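It would be a great kindness if you could assist me with a short task in structural biology. I am sending you one protein, given as its amino acid sequence and as whole-number tokens for its backbone shapes. I would ask you to consider whether the tokens describe a fold that such a sequence might reasonably adopt. The full record is reproduced below for your convenience.
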Amino acid sequence: MAHRIVVGVSGTGSNLRALHALASRCALDAEIALVFADRPCAALDWAVEQGLETLLVPAAPRGDDAARAEEDRVLAESVAAVSPELVVLAGYMRITGPAMLAAFADRMMNLHPALLPAFPGAHGVAEALAAGVRVTGVTVHFVDASLDGGPIIVQEAVPVLPDDTEETLFERIHAVEHRLLPRAVGLFLAGALSIEKGGRAVRIDATKAAAKMPVPRRALLSVSDKSGLAEFGAGLVRLGFELVSTGGTARALRAAGLPVTDVAAVTGFPEMLDGRVKTLHPRIHAGILADRRVAAHREQLAAAAIDPFELVVVNLYPFAAAAERPGIALEDLVEEIDIGGPSMVRAAAKNHASVAIVTSPARYESVLGALERDGRVGEGLRSALAVEAFRHTGAYDARIAAELPGRMATEGCGLPDEPGLPGATDPYPPILVMGLEKVETLRYGENPHQQAARYRRPGTSKWAGPFALGGSILQGKALSYNNVLDASGAYNIARQLRGPAVVIVKHTNPCGAAERSTLAEAWQDALAGDPASAYGGVVALTREVDAATAAGMASIFLEVIVAPAYSGAAREILAKKPNLRLLEDSALGSDKVAPPPDPLGSLRIAGGAVLVTAPDVLPDDPTTWHKVTSRAPSAAELRDLDLAWRLCRGVVSNAIVLVKDGMEIGLGSGQTSRVDAARQAVAKAIAFHGADSLNGAACASDAFYPFPDAVEVCLEAGVTAYAQPGGSIRDAEVIAVAEAAGAAMVVTGVRHFRH
């Protein structure tokens, strides 16, 4: 059964309301048996509205001692009649008389808006301001015959700000009163207070307080993403939680009609430095970090008058969104770096044995469901939330670490030549931190027995490929692991093509490609390159897909199509293939120059090592190629060499690409020797186009010819023009073979290995 208390009031009754609210949430083991006042007031009216028993004992006229004694007697007898354990003077503006003091000796406490013994009496706030003190505060003390001189139970300082008025200072003092008075009442009712015999000091038994005082249900909320916040907050209030919040979160909760305790009321200190410091305070972090399984932690909280938090709901300032705003200055971007938020998230996640940390609105339903169903967030869910929280802060810091160096360099911060900083000799940092966002779990990996998922790297440029920004599909089944690989390969090759062009990829290799005057023609000739391999392939195109091209592609089985756009007629045609996946990427066919490749743009895991490199996307310039034979390539040969060389970088090494009249006619890929790649390319060309197709064809080799044999294979088939990087110790032998046959050979000086 709750302890009975009586509350004396004279004004608005904000402290009465605070006591009543805590008692209603079972956070204070008390029942308000009577509310008395010395005058009609808002507090008494509110008590009547709440159905509380009330008593009005009007103040006797000043100087009428008999009337004053009668007032004191009536009040003492009326209060005693309800058998309270404690009388709480919460803004009661009368000095208690001998009858009340005798009836409730050491069982009556008062609240005073100053740090007693300084500034006693009815004007403590005004006098503190007049005295120019830097600090005042709140005192709860036992009542004796002196004026505000009884034994002090608890005190808390409140800073006096330079521009404070009596009104603004009172506002902050009241916020502390609403927390401190219920704490003192709770300590008394728990039997944790004792007055030294014959002395003035009040001792607090922290062990008894920790064991007997009810633990209030508190949730700390500070979120940038307000979705679902009002509904979640309402659910918590229904379950008896006190909502502690600040800034925009507090405003959103109040706008939803929910009661909110400001963080400043908990800390006793207003936010400062333009909001940079709000929650970085022991009254917040001790409430988060206290391990309630440990008796010493519970006792320290009780001694410090700090209530623990059961739930911390935080998501961070939207740094990533700010970084993507065009033209945002470094100074403004830095202001979007959250400090207090990650501190609270990490603290709550560390203490997940006692606290549930929620960093995503997607978790509101499950957390609220657990609280409603079980009365608590279970250990399993708390643990999962903690892991999620550390991932959240890790990804947040990773994005900041990735974003700031480039911004600092742009702003001319004078960064030193240190590994990983822009412009440094070594572009790779000592520690590479990367937060990847999960897009989806895939059905399986490269093979059905392998698990797999697709992620994206936040901040990646759209030029990185069709999946840089997530890569949602317009039509078709869900993407598979291999679909993503092949679509990326097709995109990268198509970015190298010019005009209306099509490339068909199978197992990341271009089995057909063509550049033509229309997209439909390019599709027909790309398909003709290797119609057998095109079955089940992935297609990338450099122009909007029109009806004619769509009809051609719909005639065979394809897995994925990537294009800059699709006409309405094309969509209607392709919709008849409901499993066919359609992706859209406006970078295909664009004349805009892509930014320089990111040195950290390509990662591979190999035998426990993580290999990091810039992707091989820099365009080649045929004007820099060197003729090494007497005969230069003809204009037609040079055009075909250019296309073959652009295709070559998309082929798995060892790679040989044969092109004739602007279309790929033969491909040798993934061979362990270059001569085998040449034989494979020639065989493909003969199989699909006949032996005559090789007469006058162009050949590109992704790396130098270690021996003349691969050139000899192609010469014998009729190939007349060759492009290769050069650099072999047998270059002279290779060139001599081409020279003797009257062929043209150019050296590009660039290798395009792909493993």
Summary: The first strand starts at residue 3 and ends at 9. The chain has a mean pLDDT of 90. Residues 379-410 form the longest helix (32 residues). The radius of gyration is 39 Å.
